[in-house]
Amino acid sequence: ALEKRFSENIKYVEDQAKQALQALEKFAENYILPVNTNKTKAMIVHNVVASIEPELKYKNVSIEYVTSYKCLGVEICSKLGWSKHIDYRLKLVRKSYCGLRKIFKSIPRNEIKLRRKLFLAFSLPHFIWLFFTWFFYTEKQCAQIEHIYNTGVRLVYSMWGFEDLTTLAVCRELSLRDYLYRYWIKLYKHLEVSSEAVSYRQTWTSFVISTDTRKSYYKSMGFRKNSKFPNRLAERAHHSKLDILTFINMHRTQFRVFQISSAILETFILKYFPVFHDEKEDNT
Questions:
Q1: Which of these, 1, 72, 141, 162, has the minimum number of CB atoms within 10 Å of its CB?
Q2: Which sequence spans correspond to the domains of the chain?
Q3: DSSP labels, 1-51
Q4: pLDDT tens, position by position, 54-106
Q5: Residue 282 gets which letter from DSSP?
Q6: In this model, does residue 27 exceed pLDDT 90?
């Protein structure tokens, strides 16, 4: 509860967890499905210093508390942030780059289509794993992911020694944000109409209500208009749909810019080959 002390909330969580463990014990006995208590962990998320932990036991065996665990391929941590998830995925990307380097030794550089297909098959899927939570990353984390993607492009085209933008301009390759744009265009349409995304659409409705300046819901929930907790919630509330729509609208005009536009490539030529440009002007 918002207006209760942390110790009272911990006691409430402990009671709810005990009921859940008792229900799990009955279910395991009725269906003869034993529970592996060694792999059963608990995690509590809060921002309180020197907090107490609920005492949880399953058949007199204490449940161990952990700061992170892996669920469906995603690392969930008690500390807010996606650094562990990003580091794990980028580690897999670097491993795929090591394999591609060995393969590319036997593939000549003029076989760009084959080299590109191998890159898209073995390395790009690891980047796609990062797309769903992209808008929760910091700018530094996004820049790191894009840089490692561009390193893969340099590996495919053997463009060592050039910066990221120059590499994309010369190779005329899709940027990582182009793939991100494609991904979210399809996923956003799915989230707006799918029956599986009802809870997501409800979170958007809740966000609109909680940030409404009229504060019409305060009275129905027993809050005053100057109550501390709902006002703080309205100030800090943020929804990923805002970031998604902003990105889609901004990147719509920039999609495939490195493939379509020649302005960046011309800038590269004028920067690194000014002599040929001067000779062309003299001839004219």
A1: 72
A2: 6-66, 83-174+256-283, 184-249
A3: -TTS-HHHHHHHHHHHHHHHHHHHHHHHHHTT----GGG-EE------TT-
A4: 888 888 888 888 888 877 766 777 777 788 889 989 999 999 999 999 999 99
A5: H
A6: yes
